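Hey, sorry to bother you again with one of my protein questions. I've been puzzling over a protein and I'd love to understand its fold better. Take your time with it, there's no hurry, and the full record follows here:
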Amino acid sequence: MDISYLGYGIGAAIISFFLTPLVRNFAVAHTIIDHPNARKIHTKPIARLGGVAVIVSFCAIIAFVLITQPQSLRFSDVVLFGIDANLVGVLLGIVILCIVGVIDDVKGMSPWIKLAGHFGAALLVVVFGVKIWWLHNPITGIDITLGGWTYIIVPLWIVLIINVVNWLDGVDGLATGVGVIASVILFFLARDPEVNQPATALLAIILAGALVGFLPYNFNPATIFLGDVGSMFIGFILAIFAIISGGKFATAALVLGFPILDALWVVIRRIIRGQPIWHADRRHLHHRLLDAGLSQRSVVMGLWALSALFGSIALYSRTHTKFISWLVLVALMGIVGLLLVVREVKQKNV
């Protein structure tokens, strides 16, 4: 690994590590607390807003890079105010999500307003040039040109991943750890000579560092949560990594495969039951594994391992193999889900 990349990641980790306790103290002092209830698994009040420390760390290192070597963060030929246009869109999107997330963590927010914020951030990214021009068909091997469809597909993808990671953040350290794994996988992919996207690699290692610095406080037993501001930010940036400077769509979809499948299953189940899709419950995979008797740490480390396994497969495989791996993951998730359902039915009949 290039020492300069590692240095930026370490810098983000150091800032995040020392900033997180300050954010935690602020949240406690201002009663920005996540209280226990029947749906949640923590048994004592925990500070929110941890994502603020991650975001500030991430943006502080980006600001340093832009001041010292702005050419390192160039994704396109268009520059605005001395900053790459794609990056301007990403930073503006972060500002929107940060505002929405903080308000939601502090006061609560209507799901519709929050969703509007998600789409607003996603559309800004497209307006400033982050697009998907084509997708590779793993079955025929023929590239699919998207044209104007990119203005629909990119926002939908970004909003999907924002909510996938938001829903994933239900067990101490799970979303943070998966964010680290996904960032590292995408870093190595961007550094591959065939891909050769150093700017994307730089952003990925900075995000990984910011999350690593936060993780000691967020791992079980957590003393601070990411909050919506943090989980939405992670989902947003990972979604961007999948498309900026060329497609890493299949890799990101595989490394985030289990939370994506879990989210789709939860949405389908809520629709069938006539419930609003934003209706919170304890039917996510991580909740059901906890109900099956596994500890928080076992669930988190097991799902981390699953994410790392399929991410590594994606890193060293072509599109066709990634597609086969996705089908394997679907089958694996189906088997686990079936076993959990059978166990729950047996328990009800006892």
Observations:
- The chain has one domain: 3-247.
- The first strand starts at residue 33 and ends at 34.
